[in-house]
Each structure stands twice: as structure tokens, then as C-alpha cells.
Design a protein that fits this description.
It is built from 27 helices and eight strands. The longest helix is centred in the last third of the chain and has 33 residues. It has 624 residues and is mainly alpha-helical. Among the domains are: 77 residues; 71 residues, no CATH class. The chain has a two-stranded antiparallel ribbon with strand order 1-2. Strands 3-4 form a two-stranded antiparallel ribbon. Strands 5-6 form a two-stranded antiparallel ribbon. One of its GO terms (molecular function) is calcium ion binding. This is EF-hand domain-containing protein. InterPro entries: EF-hand-dom_pair, EF_Hand_1_Ca_BS, EF_hand_dom.
Length: 624
């Protein structure tokens, strides 16, 4: 390692050991001959010091962000690649380092590897330098890590995650006691390097949580569980690096884990990790979605507690044992009212008596009244919800209540669906069954699947739930495929699709909440794909262009009818995008000019907000 260092290469010792095993085929590390050193030197230089495993992973990252296929990454694409890997991104350093390593036109694959090596090394060196400037010591102590991470721009990390990442580099022993008990008081360069690698790989989850997430992904990545994954046990433990799950299966996996999300929210999460219009995702992408959900929960908890960053930091460090207990600052009490707002915001329903009981547990000191204490309670509640959801084919409590009412109305007085009641349910779930032979056959086969009998003459409530789930999935899968094909065809960039989706979903959900009060159909309260009526589309556009005349209204109706393939009087999201494209092409009611004004106003507001946040962050760092 020292010899390589003299040649300007700074590989981590463990990486050199892995490369040694690759070159020699031997497990035990020993002294090298000159020829072996030369061979290892060539490998290290060609790979910029990375092992085979890291090399393959970084090549995938490089390919992921070479979106235009020109075999180079621009500085913007490099930034996205860093974000994807979990780095805190320093924009100025990215620009400077990209110019140093590559060319003005961008980085080729080997230059990207060199860039990544230098960026990682620089990050560790910055941690050491920051620590030296504040403590006077070059060696980084464990208790300094949270402060240093915040200074570099990393988000708050749960104390138990810090604990596990430190244990993986033999800094602490998890078996000693609760909290962080140091076996070695400081990090070496290699130790700090691996700590940061482990931290990024954790996605903010402890190992037990990551195991649950991986198992859920593998469960829904197999065809065996694509339709009835909520009732069968998955005994498979084999890991498939090439495994993929569809967006619909991602939705099922999240429900299986206890997250109370809707399918439209899953689509927004996909947009949030840069996978606009993607039909499927791999395990790493799945973990990115989960990390996004995790961050959203923490942000909601912080908002609920109305804590300043300083209060949250001191409390979390004190509860983790990495700051003196007398430094703890008492946050506002965790009340039943606050918990109710939080749980509702995250999609969970909880009786008032349970909320009062939880607030008492906080008051009595069973949980710390900080972000991590509330996160622990939320995790416990999610596990309870998970058990209920798995028994009921992925339906949330509110959905289950609506389906129970629909079933009871249809099943009177027998308590099961049979005869005319069963026929009525089939007509609602399979609208074309009366006239179309293929749809009638599909209905018969689906009922046979849920009853596991040839007669198909009677359904109990659990069989009814299974039938509804299969019908919903069939419709959702077809619509998601239509959206995927439409987004590939339409000329919108990813950021435009994301913004349009946010607007569309906001209006569509408001409209649905009003309509659901009068809805009596089985699928009325659980349909997963939002729609927007023509009236709502016109009202939305009027907010941009102003009131419309009768003539312009007729032109709008013609466009909406042209893109509404089912002539249902409402638009799915991709149909809405097609309508927007047509309106822009025709410059309907001067929509392009008005939209440009709104974009400029929005840009000015974002610039002002960014400047304010930048100054506030600079002031905070100066205080630190």
C-alpha cells in the first residue's frame, strides 16, 4: 500500500487485500513477489483502486446516468450519480474535480472511476480536516461523527444505524450494551472510509430492517406471488441480482411491509428517484424508494414535534450515549393530538384510546420525546398494521371498512354472496361479462381461482376480498402499461412529467374525495388509478389562461374527447399529458404565453427560497 501511495495511488488496505485474492487465487494474505506486485499494481491502476465488486457496481451507475448514450458523463450527470449512491454532493467540488480528471466534454468510464476514487478520498480527508480544525486532533472520535456528517451535508442518521456501521469496522461491539460503547476511541483513514461506505449502503436502516426489505422485494419479484402474495408463505431465500419488480408489485411490497401508501403515491416515489415512466425496478432502486419513504416519515415527525435542528440533535445524541446526558434539551411533549395528526398524515388510522395510551408511554419515559423515539413507535405500529394487511389481501383499514359495507349490502340475508347477489357483484367487477364471452370466461376463471372449487356458486368475505384484489390488479396493470407506453411516446422531459403528476394528483384526489361520499359501487373507494373529469381539467386550465369563451370551450372539449380512449368523461394521467401536448401545439387560448409567465414566476420564487436557505445554512455552519 505504501509503494502504491508513492505512485500517487491511495487504495484502501482491504481493497488491496481483495485484489490480492483475485490475482493470486489465495485466501490468506502473504508477502508478494515482484511479479505479483507488478500485476496487482496494473490491476489497481486500471480500476482506480477498486475491487471487482465495486468496479461492477460503479459501471452500472455510470451506465445508468449515460442517458444520451454518448459514452461520457457531464458534471450534472455525475452529480446525479453521486446522489444516487448516497453521497452528500458539493457542487463546486464536482465541477473542479471533473475538470481535473476528465475533459470539458465529460468523463468517460475510466475517468469516472478515477473521479469516484478521488471524491471518496477527499470526503474522508475533509472529515479528518474538519475534526482537526475543531478538536485539534487528527484522529476522528466516534462522538464527533454525527457533527461532522451534518457539516458535510449528510442528513440526520438514526443512532442505531451509526452504531451498526461503527460495529462493521470493529469500532464498537453491539453485544456490550445499549448505546455506543467504544472499543477503539478513534477512526483511522481506512476505518472512516469503510464507515462511510457502510453508512451509504445502509440507506438509513438497521440490518434487521434491511433484511425485511430484501425479503419483501424477493417475494414480489417472483411470479409465484404476483397474484396471491398476501396469503402464501414465501420459503425462498435465494437472491437474484437481476430480479425486478413492476410498479404494481412495488405497491404490493410496500403494503406487505405495512406502509399505508396508495398506488398514485408509489408512482410519485418512482418519479422522486429519477425513474419517471419506468415499468420496473431492481433491488437497489427498491431500496432507494424505501429510503425516500423513511426520510418522509422523519420529516413528518420533525414537523409534528416542531423541533429546531439543535434540539433534535442534542436529544438524539444523548439518547444514543454519544453526548453527555446533562446536555439533553427537552422537546415539546408528544401528545395524543400531535400523534393523531402524524399518523393521519402518513395514512394510518388509530383509535383515540390507543393514541392516549401512546402519549402516556412517552410521558412515563418508555420512549424519548424526540424524532427517534417517535420513529420507534411508528415502526412498532407499522408492524401491527402489516399483520392486518397481510390477512386481508393488502387492503388498508379504511378500504377494508368500505368493502365490508359493500359485501354486507350484497350478501343479505345469507351472509355470503350467492345467486343474484353474486351475479350483481360480478357485473360490477367485470362490467363486460353480460355481453362479452371472453369477459364472462375471465370472470368465471377468477371466481374459480379464489374459491378453489368448480361450482363457483358462493363467496365468503375473504374470497370476496381476494376477488376484488385480483380485479383491481388486472385493471391497474393494464393502465400502468398504457402509461409506460405513453410516456415513452410523449415529448415531455422527466422533470415536466413529475410536476404535471403532482398537479394532476392533487386535483384528482380532491375531486375523488367529494365523489366518494355518493359512490355506491364496490370499487368506488379503492380504485387505484386516479382520473380527472373534463370539468376539473377546464377549471385547472382556467387558472392558467383565465375564463374561457364558448368557442374555446368547444375546442377544449374536442381535444379531451380525442384523448379519452374509453369516452368515460374523465382522463387518466397519461391522457391528461396528451391533452396538454395537444393544447400546447395549438396554443389553445394563448396557453403557451401564460404558462411561460407562470414558469418565470415560479423560477424567481425558487431562486429566492434557495438563496434564503443557503444563507441560513451558512449562518448555522458559522455558529457550529
Amino acid at each position: 500500500v505504501q509503494l502504491l501511495g508513492r505512485r500517487g495511488i491511495t487504495p484502501v488496505l482491504s481493497c488491496v487485500e481483495r485484489i490480492f485474492r483475485e490475482v493470486t487465487g489465495e485466501k490468506e494474505v502473504r508477502d508478494l513477489s515482484f511479479d505479483e506486485f507488478v500485476e496487482i499494481y496494473d490491476v489497481v491502476q486500471a480500476r482506480a483502486g477498486f475491487s471487482e465488486h465495486d468496479l461492477n457496481r460503479l459501471r452500472k451507475v455510470w451506465s445508468r446516468y449515460d442517458t444520451d448514450g454518448n459514452q461520457v458523463l457531464s458534471a450534472d450527470e455525475v452529480r446525479l450519480a453521486l446522489y444516487w449512491q448516497g453521497f452528500a454532493v458539493d457542487n463546486a467540488e464536482v465541477e473542479e474535480l471533473a475538470l481535473e480528471v476528465g475533459r470539458k466534454k465529460g468523463l468517460n468510464q475510466h475517468e469516472f472511476l478515477v473521479f469516484m476514487k478521488k471524491y471518496r478520498d477527499n470526503e474522508v480527508q475533509k472529515l479528518i480536516q474538519l475534526n482537526t480544525s475543531t478538536t485539534g486532533n487528527e484522529a476522528v472520535r466516534l462522538e464527533d461523527i454525527p457533527r461532522l456528517l451534518r457539516t458535510l451535508g449528510y442528513e440526520e442518521v438514526p443512532p442505531e444505524v451509526v452504531q451498526e456501521c461503527a460495529a462493521l469496522v470493529h469500532l464498537v461491539n453491539l453485544d456490550l450494551a445499549a448505546g455506543i460503547r467504544p472499543l477503539c476511541s478513534t477512526f483511522t483513514f481506512d476505518g472512516l472510509y469503510h464507515f462511510m461506505e457502510n453508512l451509504r449502503a445502509s440507506h438509513g436502516f438497521i440490518n434487521a430492517e434491511r433484511v425485511d426489505l430484501k425479503n419483501a422485494f424477493l417475494r414480489f419479484s417472483t411470479e409465484k406471488f404476483s397474484k396471491s402474495g398476501f396469503i402464501e408463505d414465501d420459503s425462498s431465500t435465494a437472491e437474484d441480482e437481476e430480479a425486478q419488480i413492476s410498479v404494481l408489485k412495488l405497491f404490493h411490497a410496500l403494503r406487505w411491509l405495512g406502509y399505508q401508501v396508495e398506488l398514485w403515491q408509489v408512482l410519485e416515489k418512482m418519479d422522486g428517484i429519477g425513474m419517471v415512466g419506468s415499468a420496473s425496478l431492481c433491488q437497489e432502486e427498491f431500496m432507494r424508494v424505501m429510503a425516500g419513504l423513511h426520510r418522509q416519515e422523519l420529516e413528518c415527525i420533525q414537523e409534528m414535534l416542531q423541533e429546531s435542528p439543535e434540539i433534535q440533535r442534542v436529544n438524539s445524541e444523548a439518547s444514543a450515549g454519544i453526548a453527555p446526558a446533562d446536555q439533553e434539551v427537552q422537546a415539546g411533549p408528544v401528545t395524543a393530538k400531535r400523534l393523531k395528526v402524524l399518523f393521519q398524515q402518513l395514512g394510518y388510522s388509530m383509535p383515540g384510546s390507543e393514541l392516549v395510551g401512546l402519549s402516556k408511554e412517552f410521558a412515563q419515559g418508555y420512549f424519548p420525546q424526540d424524532v427517534w423515539g417517535v420513529a420507534q413507535v411508528l415502526r412498532r405500529h407499522r408492524n401491527k398494521v402489516r399483520d392486518e394487511v397481510r390477512k386481508n389481501f393488502g387492503f388498508a383499514r379504511a378500504e377494508l371498512r368500505g368493502l365490508q359495507e359493500a359485501f354486507e349490502q350484497l350478501a343479505r340475508p345469507a351472509g355470503t354472496l350467492q345467486g343474484k347477489q353474486l351475479s350483481l357483484a360480478v357485473r360490477q367487477l367485470f362490467p363486460g361479462a353480460e355481453k362479452e364471452r371472453l369477459e364472462r370466461q375471465r370472470a368465471h376463471q377468477t371466481i374459480k381461482q379464489v374459491t378453489k372449487s368448480r361450482a363457483c356458486e358462493e363467496l365468503d368475505f375473504q374470497e370476496f376480498l381476494h376477488l376484488v384484489r385480483l380485479c383491481l390488479d388486472r385493471e391497474a396493470e393494464a393502465k400502468l402499461n398504457e402509461e409506460h407506453q405513453a410516456l415513452e411516446r410523449l415529448p415531455f422531459v422527466a422533470s415536466e412529467v413529475t410536476e404535471f403528476r403532482t398537479i394532476f394528483h392533487g386535483v384528482a384526489l380532491q375531486e375523488k374525495s367529494k365523489a366518494s361520499e355518493q359512490c355506491t359501487s364496490i370499487l368506488g373507494n379503492v380504485s387505484a388509478i386516479p382520473c380527472l373529469s373534463y370539468i376539473a381539467v377546464e377549471a385547472m386550465l382556467a387558472g392558467i389562461t383565465g375564463d374561457v369563451s364558448e368557442l374555446t370551450r368547444e375546442a377544449l372539449q374536442e381535444i379531451l374527447l380525442a384523448v379519452d380512449m374509453e369516452k368515460k368523461g374523465s382522463l387518466y394521467f397519461w391522457e391528461f399529458l396528451e391533452a396538454v401536448r395537444a393544447l400546447m401545439d395549438e396554443n389553445w387560448h394563448s396557453i403557451n404565453d401564460e404558462a411561460q409567465k407562470m414558469v418565470l414566476e415560479s423560477w424567481a420564487q425558487k431562486e429566492a427560497d434557495a438563496l434564503y436557505k443557503s444563507r441560513a445554512e451558512s449562518a448555522r455552519l458559522d455558529e457550529t
